[in-house]
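INTERNAL AUDIT FORM
Audit reference: QA-55
Scope: verify that the stored structure record matches its stored sequence.
Auditor: D.O.
Record contents follow.
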Amino acid sequence: MNVITGKANTYDAIVIGSGISGGWAVKELTEKGMQTLVLEAGQTIVPERDYVEHVPVWDVKFRGMRDRKYEEVYQPVQRHIGDEWNSKFFVNDLENPYTTPQDQPYLFLRGRHVGGRSVMWGRQSYRWSEMDFESNLKDGHGVDWPVRYKDVEPWYDYVEDFIGVSGQAEGLPQLPDGKFLPPMEMNCAEVVVKQAIAEKFPDRRLTIGRTAILTVPHRGRAACHYCGPCARGCITRSYFSSLHSTLPAAEATGKMTLRPFSVVHSLIFDSKTRRITGVRVIDGQTKAPMEFQAKVVFLCASTLESARILMNSATAEFPTGLANSSGELGHNLMDHIMHGGASGIIPGHEDRVQIGNRPNGIYVPRFRNVHDTFPDFVRGYGFQGGGSREDWMRGSEMPGFGVEFKHQLRNPGPWRFSFGGFGECLPNHQNHMELNKDKVDAWGIPTMNISHKWRENELAMVKDMQVTAAEMLEAAGAKNIQLSSVPSSPGEGIHEMGSARMGRDPKTSVLNSHNQAHDIPNLFVTDGSFMVSSACQNPSLTYMAMTARACDYAVTQMKRGDL
């Protein structure tokens, strides 16, 4: 094997992955004076070339209906997300295969490009509360978080101040307020439902979503102009992504080296010093092997990919994966269970229409097991959703044909309001991934076998989501209420987490309270891998805060000579 090495390949730090966590890692490390290499498995994204949020439907080849023949062959998994405009941001499944047990389907929805899934994420940004960090300890599921809200709170402040989060303060213990830009405005249907909930259900609160989308200019980025299809890109940089924000900040320091098409094979471990000395990489285009050296490594490749890299870095001392003396690497996978809820028609207000396409919905924070104990399950769920006027597509469920029918569909339909639940998944050792050495990807790296299923607690939540969503709609006077209680597939929430959890005890966890591997002091993992529980809030804001916190700790330790 002709491996490219040399002094030019030596850095203070290496960050693996350029998504939400990786972007924050390189920003913090470079701003603290570290010469940092960022290894990204996929291509560079050029917004002027690749963003298509303003391309009309008549200018795409299949008029928005997607290239189904291509997807059947090359994206049988990824076709479950996105659209014809942004399918290019999701991976080629033939090049990136994985396996699952026949009775446990798992949707691994992912992108490989500079910026990662921060280019297409949902942008919902919610803090975790003290009850979330205490939950494992109190009800006995999983291991105790080694941090509490007070440890993360200043880092939530720090991150929110940089990324820009619009939202409304509500003073709720289960959903701490943050440093908000002005909130987006709710429409008339949402106001009706909000008022009904306040009157009928004092333990519940409907608020506008807290989202990393600017409502005012912020740090050189423009306010959102409500075009709507954010997952296709944002040429105005109005939503946060590493491509728009953290990577440019790192580049401005002059200390970042970004290398796309760099597929990480494994980490190099020196058993004498008990340190990572470098990273083995396969060039994504030429497939040439090479190595890069660094004093510290931040692994931010995403929950499943980071675990795969550590497993593929196995040594005689760590036969089941690097830093895996606990045996917990790859285990305790979690995602949010979805699709429980309801929708209905809100009568009236037919003289009012929406202006623009607001890229945000409403949020109902968790209300089960907050003040009172609910008997059917532990933990809880929140609702996302919102109201909008039905458009011409309602014609698929209406009787009629001909000219009059077409004219009818030209006018806006009634106001419809929908609730969709996001429920907490309990940590469970049996939900796990492992290497499949019999099947390799396009770069010759062993693939993964993912075993994850919903269990009794998660399924009980979905049933309750249906009930509570319907009763809130009834309170608002909704008509034609339609119920939903078919759970999502694991992975469909795209909130996978937990493969290298933090903990207080090295015997039951992979990382310590600073995202540092118990077994290897100069290895940090700050993507979703470190999560000890899943809460029911979107996790990305917590990834960012914990990454910034870990970088601060790592640089301090390095300056002290302790790494």
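Auditor finding: record pair retrieved intact. Residues 76 and 554 are 40 Å apart (CA to CA).
Action required: none
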